Amino acid sequence: METDIALKSLAALSHEARLAAFRELVQAGPDGLSVGELRDRLDLPAATLTAQLNILRNAALVHDQREGRVIRVRANYLQMNGLIAYLTENCCSGQAACEPASGCTPRQKGASK
Question: Which of 26, 54, 85, 96 has its CA 20 to 30 A from that of 102?
């Protein structure tokens, strides 16, 4: 990941509502949440959530898909894992004992662990 992309991602996450939204979407897994479900979980006005999601989209941290009248929002795990890798790539000068945990790989609902 390039530094400018990392900075854009970190800036997008540097707001309480955006960080909360992103964490909810990561927790929701690959199915994501409808905008309405996310709004209810965060107790945010629709216009506020829309503005915050636009910033997360612009940083490629989330993506959405229209399903009829519903917009489903999902975390971009590839971007998240890239950011984590960028932040930890020089951890402890590369010593194996300090290697960060592997990236997040979400499971589909109902999949065995």
Answer: 54
